[in-house]
Amino acid sequence: MDQKILSLAAEKTTDGLQEFLQTLKEDDLTDLLQNQAVKGKSAGALLKAIFKGLPCSEEAGALKRLKIYSFCIQLLESGDLQKEVASEIIGLLMLEVHRFPGQLLVELANEFVGAINEGKLTNGKSLELLPIILTALGTKKENLTYGKGELSGEECKKQLINTLCSGRWDHQYVIQLTSMFKAVPLTAEEVEFVVEKVLKVFSKLNLQEIPPLVYQLLVLSSKGSRKRVLAGIIAFFNKLDQQHSEEQTGDEYLDLVTVPLDELRHVEGTIILHIVFAIKLDFELGRELLRHLKAAQQGDFSSIICPFSIALLLSVTRVQRFEEQVFDFLKSSVIKSFKDLQLLQGSKYIQSLFPHGCCISTMILEVVNNSVHSWDHVTQGLVEFGFILMDSYGPKKILDGKTAETSSGLSRMPNQHACKLGANILLETFKIHEMIRQEILEQVLNRVVTRTSSPISHFLDLFSDIIKYSPLVLQSCSSKVIETFDYLSFLPVQTVQGLLKAVQPLLKVSMSIRDSLILVLRKAMFASQLEARKSAVAGFLLLLKNFKVLGSLSSSQCSQSIGVSQVHVDIHSRYNSVANETFCLEIMDSLKRCLGQQADVRLMLYEGFYDVLRRNSQLANSVMQTLLSQLKQFYEPEPDVLPPLKLEACILTQGDQVSLQEPLDYLLCCIQHCLAWYKSRVVPLQQEEEEEEEGFYQYLDDMLESITNRMIKSELEDFELDKSADFSQSTGIGIKNNICASLVMGICEVLIEYNFFISNFSKTKFETILSLFMCYKKLSDILNEKSGKGKMKMASRTTDSFLSMKFVSDLLTALFRDSTQSHEESLSVLRSSNEFMRYAVNVALQKVQQLKETGHVSGPDGQNPEKVFQNLCDITRVLLWRYTSIPTSVEESGKKEKGKNISLLCLEGLQKILSAVQQFYQPKCHQFLKALDATDKEEEEEEVSVTQRAAFQIRQFQRSLLNLLSSQEEDFKSKEALLLVTVLTSLSKLLKPFSAEDVEVEKTNHFALVNLKTAAPTVCLLVLSKAEKVLEEVDWLITKLKGQANQKIMPEEASSQAALTNCPMEKTTIIQLGTLLTFFHELVQTALPSGSCVDTLLKDLCKMYTTLTALVKYYLQVCQRSTGIPKNMEKLVKLSGSHLTPLCYSFISYVQNKHSKSLKCTGEKEKTTAGPTAMARALRETKPIPNLIFAIEQYEKFLIHLSKRSKVNLMKHIKLSTSRDFKIKGNVLDVVLRQEEEDENEEGTASEHEGQNKEPAKKKRKKEMKCLS
């Protein structure tokens, strides 16, 4: 039978074939086809012949053809056919589709859809036919029966796709079905059907099935719905990540994890690669991704900006077209996140609305951790982004050359947080990815070397952290470090010190790096540039501190080193302590040569020797002998010679140039500190002291004792520094005398500390100290008197005080708190001098100021944060006791004593210390407050919180402020009040947010602090600044509301859900605006004086109306899909119309009238000179008025739009603004009209004079203008 069919099909006409096939039953044909197909014998030719003999022009033939076609589909799905036969049959079936009439195509498509939804497919081979069928159906123009109605072919196709996407898809065919739609022409709506269906199926598939499905979906997105595809993929993986995080932090007994972490990360990496590849082929997809994420910035941040989307963005940076846009977006997102966090921290009601604020920095660092799972395509973007953040938001240089940064890194400024995040990204990436380490290190060191004019402390900190992580890892990059050493001579000293501190751990594990550094430093020691020699000294000193010699005290026996104390590397290297001793002694020989160089180089050496001694106590002999031999050059050995030091030898005179050659005060200071440390730490530990060691420190003691005694005996004339001496800066002698005076004052301070250290509370020694202070003070007074910049000179002297912070702490404690009976007599010597006590407090203030500005203090342990903190606590305890025990009103300042009240100085010190503690020691605030409470008991430590301790201190200062405010007006000290308010503000920041109770006091409309003197501008500007802050918060809330409204989430239930969640935000926004409206209602009725108060109020009113307009625009946006406008919004609009807008216009008239009067007064006094100036000032002061009027009119304009859209008459309580271009003044108009009549009469009598006819016309125009003013 098959041969007959084939032979008939070979004939020229099909008549015979058609007749023969009509005689056969459908079952016969299908059985024949099945036999041939299974056997693999010319099934394709037979099928082709059958289709040829069953034309669609005849109904019977078409129906039989449909049955054969359906059977072939079943045959393909059976899986009984060979691959070649199945492919041949599919090819033939594809060719035959377009010959079917539309109605049969509908039936065929319905069969397919039914089979798919019912799960009847067995291998899915026939699915290749469905896109051809749907495409053919879409081309049919005639109406076709579908269901109970008739539709066009295109509409039928749409319904079929809708039905297909509404049904259930077998998991194994999801990818094939998605791929199938690529070949079907789809409308935007149809693409949306398909995309939504595929995204819903994601959660039901195995993880490994998702990447190929995403690939097909991305290809399909070229037809439309790009945004929905990207949003769906991001949302799915964000949800997976959250689930995994919850499972990891969930119950301990949870054994099974839904998705293995490693598998999830690899799948995410593959998906990201697919998306980036798709973006390279379709740039519109990349633009859509950025648009989608930018929209999320304003709305629900966490739902879209997540670790997966950030990783995706970082990978997209590899596409050059989007690189800059993506980094800009990420930068703005980071800054916005930190600013939002700052806003949240400062606002109670916003915290209640957003209790779990998300932080993008956590997400980015999570991406870094995730990138370990072969995310190489993300790593490069991470590195670039890290450097972009550090470059963009690192510390900046300010005008006076200082750096606008804090060394603690605890500041809450968003820029500093962003810079720190960049450093963390690079550090964590360095730890995880070995391949990228060389690049990170090179970029960090390049910035250190090339950016000599801008602050690079953040890069040095990062470099130090990298080395601390693993010095051994850095050995592989040693060539780059050695190359950097070649530039040391050209770098600023601070940079050199930071760089060498960072590389200390490397020097202990790499001989090549150490040898290279030594070579560079030795060359620099003899360089022509002063900075290079200073860098060499700094480098050598650091080496001495960090290469311990055998027998040196352990860290438990001596305090930790400064700076390099942060290096926590303990490696058993080949450099043993014996080798270190030889190495250190070689360096000491090199450093001795510095004692013949400039004063700046020597000064660095003296400042560094003390720290060397503490780290390497075995070098004490070498260091002390060096210092001793240097001092002998300037010491007068004869006990009767006055003065005891050769000051002339310390000064270098070259022609007219006079300069300091030997900083003798620093030399003595170094000797004093080294000697004190040696005697207190080393000597007690030595069982058998060698004679030479005992000799050198005893010899130094004798020298210092002799210098002290002879300094007391010396008069200023002995130094040639009496009042008659020349101290001008314009002559050589004047400069020389200034240098000598500075040296003498420094020496006096050093000797004061030395004698206090050895005094053991001896009355004689304290008298000596007071004598030394009087010598210091005499010189200070002369300099103040002689110098035109006396105050500044004195300030600079105390800023550079040689007194150590520890000594200042001990001295203040002795002066104010020591009540030991045996010390009473001796301390009375010092306490008898108010000037000395004031001097001690002043030095403490200067030390704290230095800490605030630089992050450290001068002198021993000045760069050790722990020691500085301890000294701060001790000083604060003393100053607090002194201020609270002896208030400023009680303290007797003396009859003719000059200088500040000591209690006021103590308060000023407390204010500075509180600021410094919050700036540098934020985590230690509890310890700080605990240290202030002298009665505190150990067992109460856990019970008393920071808030309770801060509240206790606040109550003390509140009492002081209350006493001050209760005093007579003539006794009121405004400076003390301001300091107290600042202290209270600082302490209030230590309170737990919202822990303070609101206390209602009586007569809240009367405050002693608000009077005619303070009301304007002080109080007025303060309350306006608070209003501005609330306005800023409300603006932020409205922006959030708009952002959430813009995010298109699931239609019905989600929008109702969003409406519910937005309700508290809307309610809070309206309540805050209502409060502000009431506030402004009162202020616009106040007769404020011209100036800053009026200007600020007008600007804030303008902001108020702009914010109201923004809220109205939000309701314009959402009122179509919500139930309408809330009642409290209607009340707010009513309140604005009745209580604010009319009063604003009255206030504007008041301001304009006030300016008009002032202009008239000025014009009468000085018509020529002051007129233009006054006019300019008036224009400047009234400039905010047009802005305010425009803001009011914009508000009313959008209210009208909202009324129309919401069908609620919001304008019924608002009187529309009248045009303010002009107004007719009736009384002026009458006068002008009468004058016109008189002018006309005059014109009639004097018409012969033509020249006079023009003048009245001019006057007339002027008068017309006048009445329209």
Automatic annotation (TrEMBL):
Pfam families: FANCI_HD1, FANCI_HD2, FANCI_S1, FANCI_S1-cap, FANCI_S2, FANCI_S4
Segments forming domain FANCI solenoid 1 cap: 1-53
GO MF entries: DNA polymerase binding
Positions of region (Disordered): 1235-1269
Domain FANCI solenoid: 64-280, 378-541, 995-1228
Skewed-composition ranges (Basic residues): 1257-1269
Residue intervals of the FANCI helical domain: 284-370, 555-783
GO biological process, one term: DNA repair
Ranges of Acidic residues composition bias in the record: 1236-1245
InterPro entries linked: FANCI (IPR026171), FANCI_HD1 (IPR029310), FANCI_HD2 (IPR029312), FANCI_S1 (IPR029308), FANCI_S1-cap (IPR029305), FANCI_S2 (IPR029315), FANCI_S4 (IPR029314)
Biased composition (Basic and acidic residues): 1246-1256
Protein name according to UniProt: FA complementation group I
Phylogenetic lineage: Eukaryota, Metazoa, Chordata, Craniata, Vertebrata
